[in-house]
Amino acid sequence: QVQLVESGGRLVQAGGSLRLSCAASGRTVSSYAMGWFRRAPGEEREFVSAIRKSGLNTYYAVSVKGRFTISRDNAKNTVYLQMNSLKPEDTAIYYCTAATTYGNWHYWGQGTQVTVSS
Q1: For residue 95, what pLDDT is reported?
Q2: With pLDDT > 90 as the criterion, what percentage of the chain qualifies?
């Protein structure tokens, strides 16, 4: 099975950018569809973005489309989430996830905190 470790979260001002990384070990990310979810304070965990095993198809929540970009580097066994034009409502813990079958998100990282100040 795969282990996932997120990094890159920090405090940033509104309008700024961050790149989150999800480093995988145990198995190669090329074996999985990969995704990002987030949980804001007092809210349920919500889908942010995902990418198929092939890397050819990407998906985004309406709230982040056009601002966030998901990508994968199979050689580095890492998945990224580039976040631009950040808003205070993007403040959340961001979780990386993997699935052998797209949508069946089985493996999760511990999360990385993103805080966007206004």
Answers
A1: 98
A2: 89
Mean pLDDT value of segment 35-48: 97
- Alpha-carbon distance of 60 to 49, in angstroms, equals 4
pLDDT value of residue 68: 98
Question: Measuring CA to CA, which residue among 77, 94, 93, 113 is closest to residue 36?
Answer: 94
When computed from its CA atoms, the radius of gyration of the chain, rounded to whole angstroms, is: 13
Neighbours of 106 (CB within 10 A): 12
Distance CA 62, CA 58 (A): 13
Beta bridge partners of 4: 24
Q: What is the model's pLDDT at position 55?
A: 85
3-state secondary structure of 89: helix
DSSP assignment letter at 42:
T
Q: How far apart are CA 50 and CA 79, in angstroms?
A: 10
Give the whole-angstrom CA distance, residue 115 versus residue 118.
Answer: 10
